[in-house]
């Protein structure tokens, strides 16, 4: 039933049929970008490494969301829902990192806190770090 | 258009027509995915805050992960995303055999992903690293010995090289000569040979080893001094990958359900909502891995 509907499916809202060639192109782009990520991680760019990797991952995520998940052709409200989520994730991460940065001066290299199972283990750890405690 | 569907058996009575039903389902799915993204964001926040404060844990800990297997898993998941997108397309075009084929291919890729994950986890356990809470080796051996306890010794924790700086790109990646997951494993029974090789006053962290596991010369080389409380990195690694793995398993159950429906011929151009929404979920799982792979394995 209703098998003849898919020709105009692009216009009346019940889904959008994406051409196979476009899907395959997206996969090729994703695989290429994965290769670029692995290749670029082989170079020590200092602080830039993580930003570059996250930039490439974001481009890949955009490709998946826009084409594989059809969001490019989806209802604007669904687009708002997803983009709104990303905005809140960004707020969450940025504010957490701002707070972390504010206390940066209290951190020493190699001073990761002990998060353990027992009081005794925590005590041992505190002793090993000159009784600084956490 | 909507009049065509009024007799559709898939139309629930509380919807006007198929369009409205489809759009309502899709909005619900996007809201669910939004919740999923925020859910994962909590653990990503854990990752970023700890990485910001204790980069040495991540530089050292990532040596235990094999980027080759991470990359293979990335490719497997990306391919499964394509087959899932093709499955949705087949459902939209009433191509039943294509739908079944693509669902099966997606399921096989998901199984492959979990298989590789299992092998990776197995090698972590053999190295004595697991979620920090259950990590037996979180207390330094010397400290435990001073208190008169039995000193637990991880097979690799004492095997380190202080002369190669962690900033050296070669020192922050594993360089096993071959690509089997067992390459970074080593039976704990042979841990004894790594003991008591300390020289010139270094606290037993002063040499580098390639472990031969007897399966053909694959090795895990750990450079640098083991930082205190390394288990925090592995807590991060296991929480993120396990939560992701649970999602993959849920996706596999969903794929079986979709397959059963597809075999019965339930999905066609007039009604493919379950396949479409299942596809969205599967792509989200892929999306999370796209970010996890570089964060955990590469940098």
Description:
The complex is a heterodimer of chains A (134) and B (299). Chain A has 134 residues and is mainly alpha-helical. Chain A contains five helices and no strands. Chain A is elongated and about 65 Å long. Chain A starts with 8 loop residues before the first helix and ends in a 6-residue tail after the last helix. In chain A, 20% of the residues are buried. Chain B contains seven helices and no strands. Chain B starts with 17 loop residues before the first helix and ends with a helix. The chains are: A mainly alpha (134), B mainly alpha (299). At the A-B interface, α2, α3, α4 and α5 of A face α1, α3, α6 and α7 of B.
What's the SSE blueprint?
The complex is a heterodimer of chains A (about 130) and B (about 300).
Chain A: H1 9-12, H2 20-41, H3 48-68, H4 76-102, H5 119-128
Chain B: H1 18-53, H2 55-61, H3 67-92, H4 96-126, H5 141-146, H6 231-263, H7 273-298
């Amino acid at each position: 039933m209703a098998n003849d509907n898919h020709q105009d499916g692009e216009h009346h809202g019940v889904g959008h049929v994406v051409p196979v060639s476009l899907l395959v192109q997206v996969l090729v782009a994703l695989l290429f970008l994965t290769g670029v990520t692995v290749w670029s991680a082989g170079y020590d760019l200092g602080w830039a490494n993580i930003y570059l990797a996250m930039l490439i991952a974001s481009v890949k995520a955009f490709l998946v969301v826009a084409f594989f998940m059809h969001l490019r052709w989806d209802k604007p409200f669904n687009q708002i829902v997803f983009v709104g989520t990303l905005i809140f994730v960004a707020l969450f991460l940025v504010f957490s990192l701002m707070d972390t940065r504010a206390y940066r001066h209290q951190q020493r290299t190699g001073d990761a806190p002990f998060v353990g199972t027992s009081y005794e283990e925590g005590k041992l750890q505190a002793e090993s770090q000159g009784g600084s405690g956490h | 258009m909507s009049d065509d569907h009024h007799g559709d058996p898939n139309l629930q009575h509380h919807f006007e027509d198929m369009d409205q039903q489809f759009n309502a389902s899709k909005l619900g799915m996007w809201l669910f995915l939004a919740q999923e993204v925020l859910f994962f964001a909590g653990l990503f926040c854990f990752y970023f805050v700890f990485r910001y404060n204790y980069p040495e844990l991540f530089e050292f800990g990532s040596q235990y992960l094999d980027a080759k297997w991470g990359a293979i898993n990335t490719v497997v998941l990306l391919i499964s995303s394509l087959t899932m997108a093709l499955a949705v397309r087949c459902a939209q075009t009433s191509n039943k055999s294509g739908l079944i084929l693509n669902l099966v291919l997606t399921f096989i890729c998901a199984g492959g992903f979990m298989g590789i994950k299992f092998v990776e986890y197995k090698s972590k356990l053999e190295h004595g690293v697991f979620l920090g809470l259950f990590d037996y080796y979180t207390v330094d051996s010397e400290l435990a010995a001073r208190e008169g306890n039995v000193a637990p010794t991880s097979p690799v924790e004492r095997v380190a090289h202080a002369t190669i700086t962690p900033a050296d790109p070669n020192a922050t990646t594993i360089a096993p000569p071959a690509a089997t997951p067992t390459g970074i494993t080593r039976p704990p029974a042979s841990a004894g040979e790594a003991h008591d090789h300390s020289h010139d006053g270094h606290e037993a962290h002063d040499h580098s080893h390639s472990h031969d596991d007897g399966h053909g010369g694959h090795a895990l080389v750990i450079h640098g001094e083991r930082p205190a409380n390394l288990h925090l990195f592995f807590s991060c690694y296991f929480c993120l990958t396990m939560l992701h793995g649970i999602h993959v398993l849920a996706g596999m159950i969903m794929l079986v359900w979709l397959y059963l429906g597809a075999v019965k011929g339930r999905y066609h151009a007039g009604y493919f909502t379950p396949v479409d929404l299942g596809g969205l979920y599967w792509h989200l799982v892929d999306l999370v891995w796209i970010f996890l792979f570089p964060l955990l394995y590469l940098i």
